[in-house]
Amino acid sequence: MAQKSNSNVPSAREPDLVPSTNDVVFKHVFGDERNKCVTAKLLSAIFNSEEIDEADITFGDPHLKREFVKDKLGVLDMYLQLKSGKKVAVEMLVGKYLNIHKRVEYYISRMTAKQLGNSNRYHLLTPVVFILLATDPVLDNNDRYHSEFAMMEKNDRYVLHDLRTLHIIELSKVPPDSRGRLAAWLKFMLAKRKEELMVLVKENPELQYACDVLVETNSTAEVRALHELALKRWRDEQDRTAYAVNEALEKAEAEKDAALKKAEAEKDAALKKAEAEKDVALEQTFKLLKQGYPVDQVEKMIRKK
């Protein structure tokens, strides 16, 4: 006879999902030819006034190849072209980085310049749109989670051209109670539990397919292995950074101690020299006074020495 299950025994908790902020999962969910509908809906939510269809999207090579040997090699998380001709780059930034604004500007410039190839036919240039999705704050001067930048005249606030547009989306600034299409997609990116996905789908049915892809992606051994490898590399990098920082602090502390000792020694030497010079001056003063020189003349003679 089958035994009755003990309802008081808690069921094993399912492991957290690797969210789509992870670069491996992000590329599986949003950068896969089979999931263009997901990419199209995300872009539509970001652009807001422009609805993108999956048929409008052509994925391209995310490598920004070097023009010269010494050029930096840029690799984007996702690079695509829209039917309108727009070139769109998407970068998922996890953690905090220095000079991120300059890095983005470099990528946008490379994306613009590579359109010309060996020609100088500037009329062929098409708009470049860069979308930076960041898990940590990037902008310090506002609480808005979606900021859009363009080439705009500073005083009269009119757009010069549409050849470069930058969207900065800061996931950490999305309020838990926020509503709207874009907020739903950003919450999807942050979701680590199936229960969270179920709530999101109930409120936003268009997320259903993306949630299914995310869960399926998490079930593959390949993605789990790549995620663990990425975590290991991240931990190793943190250890290397911590070691370098500690080494630099220890070196700075040693240099500070050496500098203090040197300054103290120089100060002692200067005091001893001053003391010796004072003793010599006193001795000379006494000698001159004994020889009968008046005080004011003695003072002048000592100063000259």
H/E series: HHEEEEEHEEEHHHHH
Quote the average pLDDT: 83
**Strands side by side in the biggest sheet:** 1-4-5-6-8-7
How far the N terminus sits from the C terminus, by CA atoms, comes to 117 Å
State which percent range the strand residues make up: 5-15%
- Structure class: alpha/beta
Number of helices, where a helix is a run of at least 4 consecutive DSSP H or I residues: 8
Helix percent reads 40-55%
Largest sheet, strands/sense/barrel: 6 strands, mixed
What spatial form do the alpha-carbon principal axes imply? Answer: elongated
Provide the low-confidence segments as ranges.
1-5, 66-73
Task: Give the total of beta strands.
Answer: 8
Rg, Å, rounded: 34 Å
Characteristic terms for this protein:
305 residues, alpha/beta, six-stranded mixed sheet, two-stranded antiparallel ribbon, 8 helices, 48% helix, elongated, disordered N terminus
Short description:
The chain has 305 residues and is an alpha/beta fold.
Structure in words:
- The protein has a 6-stranded mixed beta sheet with strand order 1-4-5-6-8-7, sandwiched between helices. A two-stranded antiparallel ribbon has the order 2-3.
- Strand 7 and strand 8 (159-170) form a beta hairpin.
- It contains 8 helices and 8 strands; from the N terminus they run H-H-E-E-E-E-E-H-E-E-E-H-H-H-H-H.
- Helix 7 (221-290) packs across helix 8.
- The protein has a domain at 23-219.
- With 305 residues, it is of the alpha/beta class.
- Helix content is 48%, strand content 15%.
